[in-house]
Amino acid sequence: MTDDIETIELTVPGEGAGQRLDAYAASVTEFSRNAVQRLISDGSLLLNGRETQAKAKLREGDTITLTPPPPALTDVVPQDIPIEIVYQDADIAVINKRKGMVVHPAAGNPDGTLVNAILYHVKDLSGVGGELRPGIVHRIDRMTSGLLVIAKNDAAHVFLSEKLKTHEVARVYYALCEGNLREDSGTVDAPIARSRSDRKRMAVDPEGRPAVTHWRVLERFGEATFLRVELETGRTHQIRVHMAYIKHPLIGDEVYGRGKNSLGIEGQALHAGELRLTHPRTGEEMTFTAPLPEEMVSALEKLRRRQ
Fold first, then answer.
1. What is the mean pLDDT of the chain?
2. CA 173, CA 240: separation in Å to the nearest integer?
3. DSSP of 5-60, one letter per residue?
4. I need a labelling partner for 178 at 20 to 30 A (CA). Which of 48, 159, 275, 285 fits?
5. Which residues contact 209 (CB under 8 A, 6 or more apart)?
6. How many beta carbons lie within 10 A of that of residue 165, not counting itself?
7. CA dihedral 234, 237, 243, 246 (to 10 degrees)
8. Which of 247, 254, 256, 252 is nearest to 186 (CA)?
9. Helix ranges (DSSP H) in the chain
10. Residue 196's pLDDT is what?
11. Where in the chain is the domain with CATH 3.30.2350.10?
12. pLDDT digits over 170-216, tens only?
C-alpha cells in the first residue's frame, strides 16, 4: 500500500472544553477510544504539538494533531458477491454498484466490498491502486448507487486517473434534495476539506481543495427537488456537502441532512447514473448509463402523488 498517510488536525470548539483528550478525539474521529489511547502512547497524537496523556483536559482552541497508522497489509480475497457489470473488455470494466456496498476494504469493512467482488468476477486488475484497491480509479460512497469504472491494467489506470484530474471523465448523478430550489440551474464553487471539528465529516473551508458542482432541476415537488448533478471535481462527499451548504441537503443523508424522511429513502438519495469517458486504448468516446434504483423511483412516485 503506497497511499500517503493523511495527518488530521482538529481545533477544539467550545463544547469540547473540559473533556478528556482520549474521549473527545474518539468522538470526532473514526478511531475507538482504545485506539486513540494507543496513538497517544506512541506519540502519534499530539496536543498543541506536544506529547501528553490520555486524561489531559482540553481547552477551547487547543490543537489536536493525529497521524493515523498505515493500514495493515492484508490479503484481499475474492468473494462470490453478485455485482452488475455494465461493460467489460481487456482494459476496463464498468460496474453499477448497488447501494450499501463499500467500494474497498478499510477499517470496519475488511471484506464484503466491491473490491472483493471484482477480484472474483473480473480478471487481470491493475495494481496501481495498491493491494487494498486493485483497479479502483475513483470511488462512490457506500450509500450511493451507480456507475464507476475499473482499470484492468496499469496503463488503463494511469490514463483514466489523468483524465479524472483534467476533468475529462464526466460523472452525472441524479439526486433528491430537501426543499424547493428557485433557480432552474446553478453551480456551487466552494472548496472542501476535512471538518476541523469532526473527522467523520467534510465541510466547505476556504483553505480546502477546489470543488465545483453543477446542478439542474428536473422536477419540483415543493417539499423536494429532483436534480441532475454533474461533478467538475471529485472531492469526498462533494455533492452532499455542497447541497447542504446551499441549504438543500440530500433527502436521507444521515450526516449532512436530517436522515429520517417519509419517502422510504435510507441513506442519501443519490445515484451515479451516467459516466462518459475516453477509452484508454482505442480513444473512443464512451457513454454508460444506469437506471434509477427502485428506491428512488418509488420516492419520485410518492412525491408526484402528493402534488
1. 89
2. 11
3. PPPEEEE--GGGTTSBHHHHHHHHSSS-HHHHHHHHHTT-EEETTB---TTPBP-T
4. 275
5. 191, 192, 193, 233, 235
6. 11
7. -90
8. 247
9. 21-28, 33-41, 114-121, 154-165, 238-245, 294-306
10. 79
11. 76-158, 167-307
12. 999 999 999 999 999 999 999 998 887 777 789 999 988 899 999 99
**What percent of the chain stands above pLDDT 90?**
60
pLDDT over 80 at 105, yes or no:
no
Distance CA 14, CA 27 (A): 15
Note the pLDDT of residue 219.
98
pTM of the model as a whole: 0.76
- 265 contacts 252 by C-beta, under 8 angstroms: yes
Q: Report the CATH fold assignment for 167-307.
A: Pseudouridine synthase (3.30.2350)
Q: Is 73 exposed, middle or buried (0-12, 13-18, 19+ CB in 10 A)?
A: exposed
Catalytic residues: 141
Q: Which three cell numbers stand for residue 154?
A: 496499469
Kindly tell me if the per-residue pLDDT of 138 is higher than 70: yes
Residue 44 to residue 155: CA distance in whole angstroms:
37
**CATH code of the region 8-66:** 3.10.290.10
Q: What is the pLDDT of residue 60?
A: 94
Whether the Cβ atoms of residue 243 and residue 175 lie closer than 8 Å to each other: yes
Q: What is the pLDDT of residue 127?
A: 64
Give the pLDDT of residue 87: 96
Nine cell digits for residue 92 = 476496463
- CATH top class, domain 76-158: alpha beta
Closest CA to 275 of 174, 159, 170: 170
Q: Give the separation between CA 305 and CA 307, rounded to whole angstroms.
A: 6
| Contact assessment for residue 252 and residue 261, using Cβ atoms and an 8 Å cutoff | yes
All CATH 3.10.290.10 domain ranges in the chain, comma separated: 8-66
Query: C-alpha grid cell for residue 193?
Result: 476539506
Q: How far apart are CA 104 and CA 203, in angstroms?
A: 23
